[in-house]
Write a structure and sequence with these properties.
It is a single chain. This protein is α/β, with parallel strands linked by helices. The chain has helices spanning 4-29, 39-57, 122-128, 154-168, 181-194, 218-225, 228-235, 253-263, 265-280, 289-297, 305-317, 361-365, 391-407, and strands at 69-70, 76-77, 79-85, 90-97, 106-110, 133-139, 173-177, 202-206, 237-238, 249-251, 303-304, 327-328, 331-332, 342-348, 374-379. An 8-stranded mixed beta sheet has the order 3-4-6-5-7-8-14-15, sandwiched between helices. A 3-stranded antiparallel beta sheet has the order 9-10-11.
């Protein structure tokens, strides 16, 4: 599979389906087709509309589209996305609320690099902005990164997080969602030995595979059932001529999307069938529930081959984080060295990607951390998406996390009143 033609073939199939959808939509839109009522033409147009949008979104990075934020001053404040640190494989960005003084509660939101863009956490960002100063990792699509930029694996990812935390300073609270949870834990442990003062005050790990063997899912079963050689031969492709990263070995986002959809194929099939029905009846709209969700869900990015393979081998197969045997540049990273950072784990009872127990395993590794600085929460009835962006996050988990952050924030300096001699 490690050839350009397989990558270009996959892109050609996507492009062809987008073209077929556009053609069907244009065909049904001809004025002559309206001369005689024909339900078939309406169905063709509806199918074309849904198909074109579906396959087009697979190669489009969604906009942040953060709305203005209403503050206690009774005004709506615009939000600007600023790049704080620019790197080849990912940036540190800041959501600046225009006209608002910087808030004391500072959060670094670590987005996953698992096939989707950081915009997958858009709703999480929106929910935190009124009460927090929000910074975030914004990972780049590997197909757009020239080969000259070099490699990027789990160790490089960890060092990026270390640099971002150092830049933001110690009065920081880190929230890692899903895939980056184990590497964020490792980055914090790395800082505990290298630069203890740069560690964050709290660490929130949400639905991450700290120990994949703690509770099996289809994801962990897949990782155990295939060899690294099989993965490299069947999943890795070389970026084709269309993109700046031509020649770079990647795990294509389209393959990851296929695996996502296959996990709930019946549910997704029904969703698209229902959307075609709605489009045929004129009930679909540009920002309806289906389009809002799938515009984000279908937008996928490529991962570097070395990052994907090292994640599977070192996090899932060898369980280096779970065994506290992770190394960075040959240097052991000892999680037990974390002694001052408060840690809370959040899991969803119905999470079928990172099942309950996988994330909570982090607390058992923190042998040097006092028990009063550890916490765990299991959200009843919540799936994977719900624990960081759904109703469960908004109503239950977000208030809990903010309360935990406040309980472990730096004490406020006493206000000194000047007096005359």
């Amino acid at each position: 599979m490690k050839y350009m033609y397989t990558y270009d073939l996959m892109e050609s199939v996507r492009n062809t389906n987008q073209w077929l959808g556009a053609s069907a939509r244009a065909f049904a839109a001809y004025p002559g087709m309206s001369a005689m009522a024909n339900p078939f033409v309406e169905w063709v147009g509806a199918w074309g509309e849904v198909t074109e949008r579906t396959f087009e979104r697979m190669v489009v990075k969604p906009d942040w589209g953060i709305p203005s934020i209403s503050m206690s001053d009774g005004k709506d404040h615009l939000v600007q996305v600023e790049k704080v640190i620019k790197r080849d494989f990912g940036d540190l960005i800041h959501f600046k609320v225009v006209g608002r003084k910087p808030l004391a509660r500072r959060i670094l939101l670590v987005a996953p690099m698992s096939g989707h863009y950081a915009t997958l956490l858009r709703k999480t960002v929106i929910s935190l902005l009124p009460d927090c100063e929000v910074y975030m990792t914004d990972w780049h699509n590997a197909r757009d990164i020239p080969v000259s930029a070099g490699k990027f694996d789990v160790e490089d990812y960890t060092l990026y997080l270390v640099d971002f935390m150092k830049h933001l300073g110690s009065d920081l609270h880190v929230i890692a969602v899903c895939q980056p949870a184990p590497l964020t834990l490792a980055a914090t442990a790395y800082l505990a030995e290298e630069d203890p003062k740069a560690q964050p005050r709290s660490l929130t790990l949400i639905g991450g595979p700290i120990d994949p063997e703690a509770n099996h899912t289809e994801v962990t079963d897949f990782g155990r059932s295939v060899t690294m050689g099989q993965l490299e031969q069947t999943m890795i492709q070389r970026v084709g001529f269309k993109y700046a990263g031509v020649g770079r070995l990647v795990y294509p986002g389209l393959l990851q999307l296929a695996s996502f959809i296959s996990m709930n194929a019946d549910k997704h099939t029904k969703a698209f069938q229902d959307q075609i029905f709605r489009a045929a009846k004129g009930a679909a709209s540009d920002h309806d529930k289906h389009n809002v969700f799938y515009d984000e869900y279908l937008a996928v990015m490529d991962m570097t081959a070395e990052f994907y393979l090292s994640t599977v081998e070192r996090v899932f197969k060898n369980r280096e984080i779970a065994r506290n045997a992770f190394t960075v540049a040959g240097r052991p990273v000892d999680i037990s060295k974390i002694t001052t950072v408060a840690v809370i784990t959040v899991e969803g009872e119905e999470d079928d990607i990172s099942a309950p127990g996988q994330c909570k395993a982090a607390l058992g590794l923190l042998t040097g951390l006092p028990e009063d600085k550890k916490a765990a929460h299991l959200e009843p009835g919540a799936g994977h998406y719900g624990i960081f962006a759904g109703k469960s996050w908004r109503n239950n988990i977000r208030p809990l996390v903010l309360e935990f952050i406040d309980a472990n924030s730096a004490p406020k300096k006493p206000h000194v009143v000047a007096t005359s001699a």
